[in-house]
Amino acid sequence: MKKIVYGLFFGDSITYGEYDGVFGGWVDILKRYALQKFHEGNGDELILFNLGIGGETTEGLLKRMPTELSARNSADGNLVFISYGANDLATKEGIQVVNPESFKDNIIKAVQHARQFSKDIYLVSVLPVSKNIDGIVVSSGKLRSNEEVILYNQILKDIAADHSLRYIDFYNAILEDKEVLLSADGVHPNEKGYGIMAEIAMPIIEKYL
Question: What is the pTM of this model?
């Protein structure tokens, strides 16, 4: 009998796929791929849920995560992807939205929530920002720096190591060519950037198909 496994992608606008009018972002590329494989009759069914919300931080994640997990819980198993940091690390009016210590605590709490429903939990890196906005206040009033991106990614790596989780490194995949893989806002990937992210994540979901 075929299994039905759920994949839950928690995140912000980069998980949602904002600024990609071609493919809809990396999660939607994976969603279509999984659906295609199912219709081809290959293996189990993997249903992916894009639970990205623009502007969300780990504070918002913790408020909704228990409800989202219980509402989408497959008896055959669940994969949980946690993709945060780009909004947490931002500074607005001189105050960091979610400081590193709170970010670490929030991610650990999120992992504990996810563990009640899943053995397969993935932490996703924060992307680098363009040199044009690095350390600069943009129209939204937020300031982001690559120095902070590196710090928050190290927190994610450490948590992944300490809790035996998989860390998905989109940061280094985008870093070298970030000026051509990011949108004009310097934060979100463009369709090429999202495509690279999907390629990296593809082997992960293939294991469940």
Answer: 0.96
